[in-house]
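Lab notebook, page 48
Experiment: co-folding of the full assembly
Goal: obtain a model of how the components sit together before planning crosslinking
Operator: M.T.
Materials (sequences as entered):
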Amino acid sequence: MPYIEVNNDFAGIRGLMAFRPETAEPLGALANILLRDTEGLSPAERELIATHVSYLNDCYYCHNSHGEIACYYLDGNRELVDQVRKNYEQAPISAKLKALLAIAGKVQQSGRSVTPADIGRARQEGATDKDIHDTVLIAAAFCLFNRYVDGLGATTPTDLSTYAPRAKQIAERGYGNHIFSSPQPA
Amino acid sequence: MAYRPETAKPLNELAEALLRDDDNSLSRGERELIGTYVSSLNDCFFCQNVHGSLAQHYLQCDMPYIDAIKTNPAATPLSDKLKALLSIAASVQKGGRSVTTAQIEAARRQGATDREIHDTVLIAAAFCMYNRYVDGLATWAPQDRQFYVDRAPRRAAEGYIDYDLHK
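Observation: model returned without errors.
Model output:
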């Protein structure tokens, strides 16, 4: 049960967004640009960064929601998603993505934890300024989303099979208002 | 933000809706104080000065008072409701899971509404993003604190939508 009466039974952040559509609008727009832009990082890579940061923040709802969306883009490769959550340096992903995940992990601790060496490693592996910018902002944004969800005790489904239909909905239709205004996919 | 206007737009719209929209039972000054306090806990020089100066402008107080709030809100003459909300904000800064039912109940006892609790949590969470964005990319920030105080009245009048540091 959320700490506040949200007057709906949407899962996770959706219930909070329905409670306060004025702030939901820019939050959805931000997620759409950061996670679905296809220039530079792929949507799968973006969702993997979001999943890793949410895992570090111990946000069950977010790391499972975004992990499932990444999984959808990765043709169901749940094992890879789980490796990126817990031990990305050993995962079969590009050296560039590993360097960006290292930056994301620093941002999760604090903006001030990012070092010139972290940025240098990413550049050496071929990351562009836009890749670095988007990685920092995705990681920072999930430090918002994770705190929003857990700080208000949002409804968190524990049955993991319920995450796939919502992931499919997001992957196919994006992060618009429909995620808290239309009936939830089952 | 100037580097990536596509993301600046929703970031500014979020700040406008949370901090400046007058359809809110928390005053602009109170909301800016929540942002300032969290930015101070995150040790973000730029954000605590931009938003501290705005709070100072709205509350018609001086910089030492803002600094006293950042150091220990409980020891200041703020309302008990705002102190309870700042305590929730401090927990959000540590992590969403740090917020306790007891803190929520304490805020309610001081008259905080669901919407006020919602906005406090989201303002605190949003500053955990803004602070990391600013410091994670090592953005340039003027070191003279008066720079921010001088710009606060114009920022307050014009809002966040067309945010420009130098205006």
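Interpretation: The radius of gyration of chain A is 16 Å.
Next step: discuss with group before ordering constructs.
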